[in-house]
Amino acid sequence: MAGPDINATRKFGGTVDFGRAAGEYRAHRAGFPDRFFRVLSHRKWAVPGARALDLGTGTGTVARGLARLGLTVEGLDPSEALMAEAGVLDAEAGVTVTYRTGKAEAPGGDDSSLDLITAGQCWHWFDRSRAAAEAFRLLRPGGRIVIAHFDWLPLAGNIVAATEDLILRHNPAWTLGGGTGLYPGWFADLAGAGFGGIESFSFDHEQPYSHEAWRGRIRASAGVKASLTKGEVARFDAEMAKLLAARFPEEPLNVPHRVWAVSGIRPED
């Protein structure tokens, strides 16, 4: 849902540039489900009229959801290509989000000026301690940060596990597979920056994908189009099509995902 620094060297070697997959990112990467935003609203973590900044906004999936809830939202990302796609989606949704180019580690902005900061599907791309410190600076006392993920779940024999195996065959340096959708290290990131009231929630969600949409979603991932050459992507995609036809012919694919979020509050002065 969000793009890293397009010049960042990924942990598994090379450079990731999600801007190279911006169109497919917009078309095929499912955003956070509606239930995620209902939870934020129910818990009063996101309230109408609040001022919010969405870090690593990418195509604006979290920013747009917050705008629908009535917040005033700004999205920040290093990739202008992704944010251009976000603007298209915002217009289709009938909401307004202000976007600007920048990094979570140096977002600019005035001290104590925000009510809410979010980071959806991107915290692992940041220098986390610097990003957390900047979030603390920007939030007013009593303001809240929410770090969230919407991850596919590789289970024995399922489409996700098979897809991860295929990515590894084409990109052996890729290290982002095998996840559980849980990020215990993020608790320490928030506590280390001075946040209190730290809590989390999670729920599982089946996301439907057609074969075409799943291929597009995978092409738009860090291990494929964001890091491989055009020829390598084409070869990968051809094998992905064969895999789907042979082993997972039914459509739609109901792909298991987990939504997980951790939140902290800047203490009152």
Automatic annotation (TrEMBL):
InterPro entries: Diverse_substrate_MTase, Methyltransf_11, SAM-dependent_MTases_sf. One of its GO terms (molecular function) is methyltransferase activity. Keywords: Methyltransferase, Transferase. Gene3D superfamilies: Vaccinia Virus protein VP39. One of its GO terms (biological process) is methylation. It comes from the Bacteria. It holds the Pfam family Methyltransf_11. Residues 53-147 form the Methyltransferase type domain. Belongs to the methyltransferase superfamily. This is Class I SAM-dependent methyltransferase. It comes from Albidovulum litorale. The lineage of its organism: Bacteria, Pseudomonadati, Pseudomonadota, Alphaproteobacteria, Rhodobacterales.
